[in-house]
Amino acid sequence: MFHLIKKHLYPLVYVFTLVAVMAGLVSFVSPVYASTGAAATSSNVSDKDLMARYKSEQASLATQQTNLDKTAGVIAKVQAMITKANTAGEDTTALVAALGIYQSQVATAENSHTTAASILAAHTGFDDNGNVTDPVAAELTVDDSHQSLSICHDVLQEAGNDLSKALSDWKKTEKITDIKARLKKDYQAEQNWLIQQQDNLNKTATVVTNVQNLIDKANGKGKNTTALVNALAIFQSQIATSQSSHNTAASILSTHSGFDANGNVIDRDAARLTVNSARQSLSDAHTLLWQAAHDLHQAVKEWRENNK
Questions:
Q1: pLDDT digits (tens, 9 = 90+) for 207-217
Q2: For the ranges 39-48, 192-201, 225-234, which has the lowest average pLDDT?
């Protein structure tokens, strides 16, 4: 769009996104524990209820093991994100810390899960087919396994929530950092644009001189130069307007609101307004300059053709 700074304005900034992993975390780190409700405390619980609770605890154990197995995939994905971000020069300190905490929480959850698995494997109070052989011991088995499975579930769920929040917070932080980096690059690019465009504006003085010489020479030969004189006057007016817009951009960039003296962003909103306003004025100046050059070129070309 802005031809005079095609090589300088708006270089692509690497933006590292977490959307896919964040979406996947919901299924990966929200383990399901099918609770049977409050554990019974009376030894008068029927054998039928004890057997049902025993089967429920076994089902919950299997479901929770599946969720624990999925944590390895979560860890691998987050580690891959950290590695990729490090390669891109991004700060991953918060992510590394969050992953370490997550791994510690998962280890704690696995310990409780292993305890529950051991209790159910021993199946004290039940025979190998899950039939009650000792109601009091059977009730203690289902109560203890239930407690261990609940602890595992709660810790694993908290781990998932904590990691998900850490990822979200990191993404927001990196987005802010990326915005600042892009604004800084835009500011620098516009300063380069300003220099190049002023050089182009300066060159118009030579164009004016050359066309004026052409007019003078043609007048000396008695040729009608009215069209050339008018075209040159329009050109000079357009250049003056272009220079005015260019000077506005120069003033905006010189004030550098939102940036410090080194071009670092200190206020994102003000910095964004600076680059947007400067860009508009630079673009206006460029458009006018291009149009002026085009119009004068066409006028000279037509005059030459009519005065061969």
A1: 999 999 999 99
A2: 39-48
Q: Which of 117, 114, 89, 109 lies closest to 162 in space, CA to CA?
A: 109
Rounded to 10 degrees, what is the CA torsion of 168, 174, 180, 186? -110
Distances (CA, A) of 217 to 110, 210, 235, 304: 95, 11, 19, 13
Question: How far is CA 211 from each of CA 105, 202, 227, 234, 303, rounded to the nearest angstrom?
Answer: 80, 15, 12, 12, 11
CA distances from 190 to 6, 8, 183, 211 (A): 11, 8, 10, 31
* Distance from C-alpha of 251 to C-alpha of 248, rounded to nearest angstrom: 5
Spatial distance between the Cα atoms of 227 and 224, rounded to a whole number of angstroms: 8
Quick one: three-class SS letters along 170-233? HHHHHHHHHHHHHHHHHHHHHHHHHHHHHHHHHHHHHHHHHHHHHHHHHHHCCCCCHHHHHHHH
Q: Which residues contact 30 (CB under 8 A, 6 or more apart)?
A: 67, 157, 160
Q: What is the pTM of this model?
A: 0.54
What token pair was written down for 99? Answer: 């992953």
Sign of CA dihedral 170, 174, 177, 183: negative
pLDDT tens digit sequence for 12-65 = 222 233 434 444 443 444 444 444 333 444 457 899 999 999 999 999 999 999
